[in-house]
Structures are given as C-alpha cells and as structure tokens.
Specification:
homodimer; about 220 residues; alpha+beta; Nucleoside Triphosphate Pyrophosphohydrolase; 2 domains; five-stranded mixed β-sheet; 13 strands; globular; NUDIX_hydrolase_dom (chains A, B)
C-alpha cells in the first residue's frame, strides 16, 4: 500500500467520523453491544480444487456460550476497477460468467497471482483485458463476497485517465469483449439492476465521491 | 489530503460531466459478440455440509472448443432489504459475521426456508430481526454473490413505511443489534466503504431511483 493510498483511507475515515458524530444513531433495544466472536481451533478443509475450498470454522458464540460450526467458501482475493478513459468513458467488460450462467457486463477484474499486491493485479488485468493503462489509480478499500460465508475479499480501485497502449492480451480460455460506455450510462446500469456482479456495484458506489459525484434528490 | 489529491479532485470534477454523455457505447476491437457457453453434463458435488456445497461444472468454451472445469460454491438464495421507517430512518443491523471475522453493519437479511418466496423470507426476517413490519415492499431484482463462482443469488427489496409492532424475535444462536440511522448517514456509509456486505450495497444503489434520489454533481 502506497503512502498515497493510506492518505486516501485516513481521509475517508475522518470524513465519516464527522458525519457520524453530528447525527448519532439510536439503538432500538437495550441490548449489550455486539462483541466479536472468537474462532476455536483451526480451519478444517472439506474439499478443494483449483485453489477453491470448502472449509469449516468453529466459533464461540459469546451470547449462548456454545460453539457453532460455520461452513465457508475460500478462494484467492481479487481486484476490480472502475476504469475511465481520458475522455470520460467507462471500460465495460462482457464475458460469460459460469456462476451466473449468462453473459455479464461488468468491470475489469482479476485474481491475484503469487506475490502480487492488489494494485499490481489490477494494473496487469486492466492492461491484459482491455489494452488500457491508467494515469492515476485510487484504492477504494475492500469488500467480501459474503461476509457470512467467505473470507475472500475483493479490492476496489478507481483508475482514471486511461489510455489505450495496445491490443488486449487474452489467453485462449478468455472470451472477453470490452466496450466504452458513458459514465452516465454505466451509473444507470448499476442503479437499474442491469449489473449483477456485486464487486462491480460496490466499486462504482465507492468511486462516486472521488469523481465529484453525490447522491441527491 | 495532499495538494496533489486536491488538484486531482478539482481536475476530475471538470472532466466527468454527466450531461455530455448520451452517446451510444462503442466496441473497442472487432471481436465476435460473446455467446453464452453451454454446460456439459451434470454438476459434481465435491463436498457439502449445512446446505453449502463445493461443486464442479464443466462448460464448453465456444472460442477454444475446449471443455473447462469451474469450481463453484452453492448455498440457498437469500433476501435483503433497505428498510426505512415511517419517519425516514434506515434499520441497520449489526452482528458478528464469520466470513469477514468482524462485527459488521448491514441490512436486515435472511436465507430462504423450504417453500418460501423471496418476499416471504424478507418479511419474516425483517419482523424477527428488528420487530418492524413494512407498509410497502418493492422488489429490486437479484444479484449473485460471485457471477463467476456461485449460482447463489440474493434478492433485493426496498421496504418503506416500516413500523415497530413488537420486540425482535432472536433465537439463541443470533446475536444481533438493530439501530436507526438517517438515510443520509447510511448512504454516506455505503459510499465511503464502511459497508462490507455487497448485497447491502447492491440493494441500496438499486433503491435510489425508487426513493426519488439520483447521482449528481
């Protein structure tokens, strides 16, 4: 993580704290504050293939005092970016997605190879999938594919000033088409439910304030 | 925030005009349109526990002509809602999430029991987790936890005019706290990366137009 990325995160935290303290939320019931549960023992792998695993974790529920089993799905973290060209167009990637079982419009994204940082993954995937390189990348933090059922995270980036430097470099297993849509059109696709991949949706909404955009009446 | 970042933000604000962008999207390369791949044979289950499974699906890649294996994680679909009270506050649920391994702020949500429709799931979970019932529910479509690696969907709802009808009904395994935050504050939490659960983020952005909100400069 670069100093620039750290500064961005600190800045966001401070802004959030100001908003929060100006309007305190109120609890509905006089419950105890929720405390983090503790994992008991090690992960047990039920099955694994191609780096994807089904695991069982045991946690001590502090409310009941009982140990409960949770089954989770683990794979390598990935990176995803809202990439905008120097003339303000969004790079939208279409490919067949085997989970959804349909051709899907989404953002450039890819999985970490050994030893790569999230930003290195993103720069490599953006270049290979689309042929573009960014002028500036901003880290937007990470999310989980399922906060209940997976320890796997996706790292969100905003890439601006993207310029084409050559053709896409796809391997024979990749069947991808990139097209340019206006930022307005992409935001409409996210808002109206046309975009199914939650990492693309999350990345887009986190990029808004960095693009000088806000949600308004 | 550095001077560099301020300059970047000012610069970007001028570059991303939302108004000048109603042009049609354009393809970058003269590729064939992406066609849906076909699954070959049946799912093979590698392991399963508590309704969660690791499965292998084989697909024929029409570009390479080869059959490729995809490992996926399957569980029951779930429902999630942005629930707003009759005085305009969002019901935010905090609980320990075993995937993220932390206490998480998110929206009321729950998994389907046998024979329930997505809306029935949502009404039951909203009532049980928070003690509230809605005046109106709007279905916002579904998303996938991972369009690549899971056939599991989450169904998104907007629930408005919510009124408290009694205490929450939690079973002994549930350790949940509900609080009310202003809609403005919730949107800020989603935009600034404080919300990690992608189904909550997706539901929020799909609800915007139904709430008379838009993304603007």
């Amino acid at each position: 993580m670069t100093v620039f990325m750290i500064l961005c995160r600190v800045f966001r935290r401070e802004r959030f704290a100001l908003t929060e303290s100006s309007q305190p939320s109120r609890k509905l019931e006089s419950t105890m504050a929720i405390v983090p549960w503790k994992q008991v023992g090690e992960d047990v792998t039920l099955a694994g293939k191609f780096g994807k695993k089904l695991i069982v974790k045991q946690f001590l529920n502090p409310k009941s005092g009982k140990i409960q089993d949770y089954v989770q799905f683990a794979q390598r973290d990935w990176s995803v970016c809202l990439a905008i060209t120097s003339d303000g167009q969004v790079l939208v990637v279409s490919e067949f997605k085997q989970g959804r079982n349909a051709v899907d419009d989404e953002l450039p994204a890819g999985t970490a190879e050994f030893g790569e940082s999230p930003e290195e993954v993103m720069r490599r995937e953006l270049r290979d999938e689309t042929g573009y390189v960014p002028e500036l990348m901003v880290y937007l933090g990470f999310g989980w594919i399922s906060t209940r059922s997976s320890p796997t995270r996706f790292h969100c980036f905003l890439a601006t000033g993207c310029k084409k430097v050559g053709p896409a470099k796809l391997d024979e297993n990749e069947d991808i088409e990139t097209r340019l849509v206006s930022l307005e059109q992409w935001l409409e696709m996210v808002m109206n439910g046309s975009i199914s991949e939650p990492s693309a949706v999350t990345t887009t909404i986190r990029a808004l304030s960095h693009l000088g955009l806000k949600i308004a009446r």
